[in-house]
Amino acid sequence: MKPFQVALPSTIDQASKLQLKDASPFMAAGTDLLVRIKDYVTVPDMIIDLKRIDGINGITSDDRGVWLGALTRMHDVAVSEKIQQGYPALAETIRNAATPQIRNMATIGGNICQQPRCWYLRHEGYSCAKNGGSGCWARDGENEFHAIFGNKVCAVVQPSNAAPVLVAYGAVIEVQGSDGKREIPAGEFFVTPEQDPRKDVDLTSGELVTRILLPAENRTTRWGYSEAREKQSFDWALASVTVLLDRGGRAGEHRVVLGAVSPVPLRRKDLEKILAGGAVDGDRISSLKKKVGEGATPLSGNGYKVQMLQGLIGKAVRQASGQKEG
Amino acid sequence: MAMNPESGLPDEQREKVSRRTFIKGASAVAAVGVVQIPGAAAGIDKAGVEPDILGPGPVSIRLRVNRSDLDVEAPPSTTLLDLLRDHHGLTGTKRVCDRGSCGACTVLIDGRVVDSCSMLAIDAIGSEITTIEGIGTPENLSDLQQAFIETDALQCGFCTPGMVVSCTALLEQNPSPDRDQIRQGIAGNICRCGTYQNVIEAVEYASRKGGK
Amino acid sequence: MCWASTQATFGFRGELSSSWGKVNASECRVLCEYVGGGFGSKFSAGREGVIGALLAKQAGVPVKMLLDRSGEQTSAGNRPDSLQKIRMGVNKDGIIQAVQIRSWGTPGTGTGGAGAHNDGIYKLGEVDKVEYGVRTNCGGARAHRAPGWPQGSFALEQMMDMAAASIEGIDPIEFRKKNDDHPIRGAEYDIARERIGWDNDRIRGGAGSICSGVGMASNLWFSAGGGGASALVRIAKDGAVEIRNGAQDIGTGTRTVMGMVAAEELGIPLEMVSTRIGDTNDPQGPMSGGSTTIGTLTPAARLAAHYAKKELLAVVAERKGWDPTDLDIRAARVIKNDGSDTGLSFQEACALMDDDAIEVLKARPRRNYAGFSDTNAGVQAAEVEVDMDTGVVRVKKVVAVADAGKLINPLTAESQVRGGVTQGVSYALHERRIMDRQKGRMLNDDLENYKILGSVDCPEIDVVLIDVYNGKSNTQVMGLGEPPIVATAAAVANAVADAIGTRIFEIPITPKKVLEAIAKKNAPAGGKTKKGARL
């Protein structure tokens, strides 16, 4: 690892100005950034360590809902009563993510801003559309874990387990730079490669995630989350499905969001519409399964993810509607 | 050497410390460590205006490790793992993947398990760090370490310090975990020899004895 | 002076003093008190070892050489791939008549070590086997626990199941028994059958959303050990006892077992014996390979302890005027042959020496006795659950019946079996090197995407150890490092086939492959819709 400088801003404004000056990366816990530095995927002269900034850590609530400070540890999100009671799908997905060690270190803000795990992107021997070159090695290469939707320009998958769940809850990402604050709906926070292959999230230089709002009006007790992965101890999702039914008690307001199958969490309005069409029975689940793969453009090695989604959507919908595993 | 309890710095160095090097941390990290920057423009008080920028050369880092203070000069880019092993000689904490995937480098920060390879040492300033050396010694093993011996919960031994640290934290939080909870508690610790079942038995053994 | 992580302290020294290393053996001392895992990859000093030593020699300062994870996975060798084609002819009584085997192995840039042991376990009748080593530009091969055996077993044992299925009324276990003449394994099949719940009702063959299956496979090994080791036993005047051998302990418990054998022979408790290992200044010891360390070392330890005791008793007899042939030591007391106590403790006996110590160096006999059994055999059975919706395989339980010669330390023996099974399950479900087809670079040179079985995935492992007094040496012990990994992946594969009703011929058995196999199986019957869901 090449030694680097560490800047220790104590305010958001300081942090922001530092990045505007020479584009140094922000570091929350560092569980992602340090790995990339050690692998010489990124070789910064300086990193901006955000841990000493006050006011962006911890879980609070107000009329609008529950706010997660960006520096809140994943573990603390998962065990928070506010989250477990109000947004159980989020607690569930984080509880199973990564390892106990990582959950104690990694922050929710860092989690949604982490770089995709694509092995080409994270290999110093390759350059692609995402890191300054052009093209996508995965499309013609080893793509078993890659995207089956929206993969024309770049086939990475969004790596955060929490991200699709945040989208389903209609979370709001509060970001702040030296020009002030913005609030971005989670569904628009993640940037598709078509929009900009260099970017993972909608942050401009100098902006950082400060808080995440889980809106009170989107709580629901009817939720389902299913995920498949090769290993049950420390592994990444191959695909996930988040289903929320009757958000905020509003009949028919459903959310279906797919994870780990496209470069951004993929909300599926067409599936939500099927769900809104009536009771969740075998026929409806069959329709969902038939539909879930629509629009997929699998690569040479990841067509199985369509089949997997068919299985996962059945599980998530049954869980959300209180039905037993068939 | 006389220490100043507030700054955590030796008195003789204290005068050189301006507010800009006195770093107040956010609540969870609770960092009130002191980093002395050699060669930096000491004395110019710009706190709140200019942030501290450390390195890339060595800075003084004081860590609280196994209930005593350890001072070292190291670049701020040094990971906690490297600092413990290479600067403090605490080689019980192992380096295997160095990427947060294997748990061999597990230590406790304020009682919580973390991968010491995946954080900067300076971010551990102000926290209570416990390594395997702080859990027991060959002459005075913890109950859990004794249980590892009784149940043969180690083979080559390389993952063992991390396993013991993880299991110690687990028992601290949950004195009588069931098998699934133990499995989850060590889910971040890879053992190539395949001792998982024995480790589970060791935790159960220590738990039955009411120890940690 | 080299502190090395090696499975062969003496081999390491040999490489350093070879033409490349250019060090005099007499000037070179290799120390390895703890190896930190080997599994076959550390027989050689490797480029990294020799380069480290050369750098230190030329620079005149200590050099620390450490491969990082990526370096380890890209430049320190790999377990070879294997591709096998097997045809088997079986008569209507279920007796194998002949097999034809073609296999291809990849030793990388090397030349050997890629063979698949697929014809060693059962009576196969006429065998026509041709094996090819395919050189690839992907780094060399290194041994990994039972090199070639898990690969061979994976192919052959699936063939055995398929052959059994082709004969009316013979189940896979009966078929194996018919074609297996190992005296111990015959009994092992029945133990495994009962303990895995082979005949239990279960939802199998892809008929439910969670399907369950069982599978079985066998293993064989040859680990009675041989010549090439000496042990030194030193009994000091103050009663301190030490046993020394320069070989290493790769985590199998060699250190403990050497001490146990010496203590037993000397008639004193283990706590009174200290053991020194991992130092080439001490007597010659074997490399830890082929699971032969324990079978090679312990007879030398026993002999050295035996003659050291004899010398001690001779001193006692001379000083006390007793008959040396009437003396022995039990529970750290000097006793007479009739069992009566002489009133002399072990320590008091030692104090009678004129010399500072008795030192006896004994070599292990080169040849083994004829004995009863040359091989140690085992049977493993696996129970799996497969989620038909996601293709995720969970190995619930593995029964491992293992014969380990005469058991010296049942606790560490069981640990070896558990370890072999754990690695075997990991091999079956997760482990693979992913090479980029475009640039030929390894893409998973880490522990994130080179997946290793973790605690949550680890099955319940039910170990049954069979104590076999094989008469091969004065300790009758057999090594148990490699045998328990041989059958595991094959047993898992057979169990998966039982569960999903179709076979997967490639490891690792990932969700992708399971889903693809299910889709393929369902395709001719009417499209690839989700498998008669919710039955």
Structure description:
Chain A has 326 residues and is of the alpha+beta class. Helices cover 29% and strands 18% of the residues of chain A. Chain A has a domain at 223-320: 2-Layer Sandwich (Enolase-like, domain 1). Chain A contains 12 helices and 12 strands. In chain A, helix 10 packs antiparallel against helix 11 and helix 11 packs antiparallel against helix 12 (304-320). Chain A starts with a strand and ends in a 6-residue tail after the last helix. The relative contact order of chain A is 0.13. With 212 residues, chain B is α+β, with helices and mostly antiparallel strands. Chain B is built from 6 helices and 7 strands, in the order αββββαβββαααα. In chain B, helix 3 (143-150) crosses helix 6 (196-208). The longest helix of chain B is centred in the C-terminal third of the chain and has 14 residues, at 160-173. Chain B is elongated and about 55 Å long. With 535 residues, chain C is of the alpha/beta class. Chain C folds into 3 domains: 2-66, Aldehyde Oxidoreductase, domain 4 (2-Layer Sandwich), CATH 3.30.365.10; 82-222 and 372-526, Aldehyde Oxidoreductase, domain 4 (2-Layer Sandwich); 230-363, 2-Layer Sandwich (Aldehyde Oxidoreductase, domain 4), CATH 3.30.365.10. Chain C is 31% helix and 21% strand. Chain C contains 13 helices and 16 strands. A 4-stranded mixed β-sheet of chain C has the order 6-14-15-16, with helices on both faces. In chain C, strands 9-8-7-13 form a 4-stranded mixed β-sheet. Mean pLDDT of chain C is 93; it is low at 526-535. Chains in contact: A-B, A-C, B-C. The interface between A and B is large, with 47 and 46 residues. Strand 1 of chain A pairs antiparallel with strand 2 (52-54) of chain B, so a sheet runs across the interface.
